[in-house]
Amino acid sequence: MTAPVDPAHAFADFLACLEEADEYGAIEVATGLLDAGVAAERVLLDLVAPAQVEVGERWARNEWSVAQEHAATHISERVVAAIAGYADPRPTRGRIVVACMDGEWHALPPRLVAEVLRLRGWQVTFLGASVPAAHLVSYLHRHDAHAVALACALPMRLPYAHRMIEACRRSDVPVVVGGRGFGVDGRWARRLGVAWAADAPGAADLVADERRLRRVPPAELSHLADHEYAGLVKRRGELIDSAVADLRVRVPSVGEYTSTQWDATIGDLGYIVDSLAAAVYVDDPELFTDFVSWLATILASRGVPTAAVASTLGHYGHALRDFPRAGRFVALGVAATVASGVVRH
Amino acid sequence: MAAADVRGFDPGDGRISTPSAGRAPARSVGAPAVLPPLAPDGTSPEPARPEPAWSEVVEHFREGLIICDSDGVVRHVSPVAARLLPEVTPGRRLAAAGLAVLTGVTDPDGFGHHGRRLRIRRVALSGSRSCLYVEDVTDSVSRADALLAERARSAFLAVVGEKLGNPLHPDRAAAAVIRLTVPTLAEVAVLVLAPRSGRARWWRATRADHESPTVDSGVLPAAALPPAIAEGLSGVEPHAVDWLVEQAVEAGWLPGLTTSEVTARVVSLPGRDAPAGVLLVARRTRWYDEADLDLVRAFAARAGAALTTAVLYRNQAEVADTLQASLVPVEPPEVPGVQWGTAYRPAQASLRIGGDFYGAHRLADGGAVFFLGDVSGKGVEAAVFTGQLRQCLQALHRVESHPGRLVKLLNDALLETTQAHGQGRFATLVLGTVRPHRDGGLSLTMAGGGHLPPLVLRNSGEVETVPLRGMLIGVVPDPRVGEVTVRLAVGETCLLYSDGVTEARGGRRGDEQFGQDRLVHAVTACHRMPAPALAERVEQVTCDWLGHGDHDDIAVLALRATGPGGRPRRHLHSVPAVPGTAERNPRP
C-alpha cells in the first residue's frame, strides 16, 4: 500500500507536461496518482482543474500563445478521458446531459463536471463545446434526461445562454448551470431564474435533489421592457462601424494596421458591445465593468494602452445617448478602465 | 320573514324586487311614518318647491336602510332592510338583533345571512345618529365566484397547454402530465399508459408540503391492473366510483389515504385509436362535481394529445436516428504514425447530418486512404448522397488505392447513379493515401476533384497551400484530376477543410467571407498542436467568425505525423473509449 499522494505535489510535473504538449507524460502523472490510491475525483478537481486555470492565466499574461493553450487543453481532455477510463464507474442513476452553450468553446470545465457526475453513478452524456440549442433540444426529445447541465464561461454569452435554458425548460427538463459566465457567486443565474452550482461537487449535489433543482425563483428581467437590449443588438454593426471611424480619426496610426490587426480590433469592439448588451440584459453594470477591466488588462499585456479602451468607451457612450441604462453602464466602464490602468502603472 | 321568503322575493335577475308600500310598510317608531328629516339642523326646505316624498324614494333603493339614534336604538327600517334583516326591530336597540356584523367591524366581502350574502356600509349621521346601508350581493358574488373559478380553470388549462406542448420524449411528457395534476385536480394522481407488450408504465404524483408534488413511476404487468383502469384503457369511463376507490387503495396507489375519506375518478386520455392511457385522480377535500369532471376531461384531452405526439415522435425519430447513424461521418481508424483530428458541424443543427463528409480506411500495406468532400445540395438529400459516396469509396478502395485512379472510378460510379436517377448530383473532394516512412514521417499522395486546396503546417511554422486542382466529380465522364505528393516530417500536419470554413459569412456586418487568408492566419503558429486540437481550432475560429449567423456545413480533417518512436504507445492503449464520449463526435 502506497502512502496517499497529494495531487498538489504533482501539479508542477503536470504543468510541465502541458507546456511540452506531452500527452503521454501528462497521462502518466495522472495515472500515477490513481495508482497511488488517490480518488479519481480528486485528481480531476485538484490536478486537472487548477492546471487549466493556470493555463488560462498564462494565456491572459501573453506568456502562452493561443496554440499552446489549445494544445494544453487538448491534452488535459485526454487526461480526463484516461482518468475516466481508469475509474470506469458503472452508471446506477439517471441520465444527465452536459453541454457547453452555443458559441462557448471552454469545454474542459463542463467535461470535468461530466466526469465527476459519472463517478457518482450518473449516466452522463457529454455533448461537447458550442452545442446549438436545436441540437440539444432534439437530443432531449430523443433521450429522457433527469437534468441538463449547461456551462457558460463568458458573461457576454448570457442572453444566448438564457434562450438555451428556456429551450430546455420547455422540454420539461430541469437545468443546472455553472461556469464563470454566471458570475463568481452565480448572481446572473439567479437573475435568469436558473439553478446554479459553484463547482462540480455542487452540481452533483444539486442534480441529486430534484426538488431543489425544480424549485428556482422566476427570472427577474422586467427591465428588458425598456428595449435597450434589443436596440443594442440591432445597432451592433453600426456601433462597431462608428467606433472604427472614430479610431481612424483619433489614432491616425491605425491606418497602417494589417488586415489581421483590423480583424482583432473589430473583434474587440464587437466584444465590448456584446458585453454591454449582456450587462443590460441582466441589468448589472458590474458585468460590463468587469469585462472592460479584463479587456484593458489583456490588451495592455499585448501593448495596447488602457487609454485606447477608455476613449473607445467614450465614443460608445456618446453614440448611446438614447440608451440611459446602457449609457450609465458605459460611464461606469470608463471609470473602471481608468482605474485598472492606474492600479497597474 | 324566513330566508325562503326573502329568496322568493328575488326576481332572479340580480335586482331586488321593490315591495309595494302596502305589503311591506316601512316600520318606524316615533311620530310620522316618514323618514326623519335629513337636513342636520332641522330647518324646513323652501316652501316654494314641493318636497319629494323621501320615504317613497328610499323604498325603491336597492340598498336597505336602518337608521339608529344616538343611543343605538333603531328608529327606521326600510322595507328592503326589513326583508334582509328581519331580526332588526324598530324601537329596540340594534345590538338586540344579535348580529355582531351590525355593530362590529364591517367586512368588505359581506357576510352570509339566511342563505344570502349581505354587505353592510355604516355611515355616521349628524347628532350621533347612524345609518346602515344593507345590500344583497348574493348574485354578484356568485357570479364573481363563477367567473373566478372559470378563470382559474382557463389559467390552469393555459399552463397545461404551455407545459405539455414541448416535451416530445414520451417519459418526459408523461412526467409533465402527472406533475400538472397536483394540486389543481387531485391530491394523488396516477397515470397509466396503454400497455406495450403486456407491460404498463405508470407515473404517480402525490401532494407534498412544498409547491411541487412528489413524482414516482414504475411498471406493472397489464394483467395486474385494477379492473377500473383496464376498463378505462379500453375506452370506457367507469361510472360506479365507490369500488374504484377500493381498487385504487387495494392496489396501493393512494398512499396515506383510506377508502372512507377519498373520492376518485378515472378518465381516459384520448389517443390515436385506443386511449393513450388513463388518469386516476383522487382527493379528500371535495367530491368531483360536473364542473370538476369537465376540467379533468379537458386536461385529459390535452394530455392524451401530448402523449400521442410524443409516441409518434419517438417512432419517427427511431427511424430517423437509424438512418442518420449511417450518414454521420465515421471517425478514421487508428493508423500507425498518424494522428487524426476531425470536426463536423452540419448547417442544420437539429439534423446532425449534412452535405460534407470525410473518412478514412486502412490499406493492407499499413497506410490508409482518406478523403474529405462536399456534395451539391443541402440537408437530408445531400446527406443521403454523401452516404452513397462513402459506400462507393468503401468498396472501391479495395480494388484501387491509387488516389487519381480511385477518384476517376468514383466519378464513373457517380455518373452512372445520377444518370440512372435523372438528377444532376456532383461533389468536390480531396482524396489521398497516407503511408508511413521509417523515419516517422508520412508520405501523402492526394488527388483533387474541384475541392479547396489542403494546407500543410510545417515544423518551421510556415503554412503551405498544397497546389491541387481538378474538376468536379460526377459531372463529366473523364474529368481532369489533379494529383500531388507531399512529405510530412514528424510533427507536421496536413489540413483538409470544406468551403463551410472559408465561405463562412461574418465580420462586422455578417456578410464578409472568412476566406483562405484568415484560415491560414488562424492556423499559423499552430504546428505544435495535436491534430484534434487543430481541427477544433479551425471549427472554433469559423464559428466565432460566424457569430450566431447561419452557416453551411463545416467539415475539417487533419492528419499529423506523430512518428513511430518517441514515447511508447502503451499509455494511449490504456485509454479506452469513455462511454458517452462517442456522442461527442461528430459535433453538431
Walkthrough of the structure:
Chain A: Pfam families: B12-binding, B12-binding_2. Chain A: Keywords: Cobalt, Metal-binding. Chain A: This is Cobalamin-dependent protein. Chain A: Residues 93-218 form the B12-binding domain. The complex is a heterodimer of chains A (345) and B (588). Chain A has 345 residues and is an alpha/beta fold. Chain A folds into three domains: 1-86, Methionine synthase domain (Methyltransferase, Methionine Synthase (B12-binding Domains), Chain A, domain 1, Orthogonal Bundle), CATH 1.10.1240; 89-220, 3-Layer(aba) Sandwich (Rossmann fold), CATH 3.40.50; 224-344, Phycocyanins (Globin-like), CATH 1.10.490. Helix content of chain A is 64%, strand content 6%. Chain A has helices at residues 7-19, 23-35, 40-60, 66-87, 108-119, 133-142, 158-170, 187-192, 200-207, 210-214, 228-234, 236-250, 259-282, 285-301, 306-319, 324-344, and strands at 95-100, 123-126, 147-151, 175-178, 195-196. In chain A, helix 8 links the parallel strand 4 and strand 5. The N and C termini of chain A lie far apart (53 Å). Chain B has 588 residues and is α+β, with helices and mostly antiparallel strands. Chain B folds into three domains: 3-22 and 54-136, Beta-Lactamase; 144-321, Beta-Lactamase (2-Layer Sandwich), CATH 3.30.450; 328-584, Phosphatase 2c, domain 1 (4-Layer Sandwich), CATH 3.60.40.10. Chain B contains 15 helices and 23 strands. Chain B has helices spanning 3-9, 54-59, 79-84, 100-103, 138-164, 170-181, 227-233, 242-250, 290-327, 379-396, 403-421, 499-502, 515-523, 531-546, 570-573; strands at 27-28, 64-68, 74-77, 111-113, 116-124, 130-136, 188-193, 199-206, 214-221, 263-269, 277-283, 338-345, 356-362, 368-375, 427-436, 442-449, 455-457, 463-465, 482-488, 493-497, 505-506, 512-513, 554-561. In chain B, a hairpin with a 5-residue loop joins strand 13 and strand 14. The two termini of chain B are 80 Å apart.
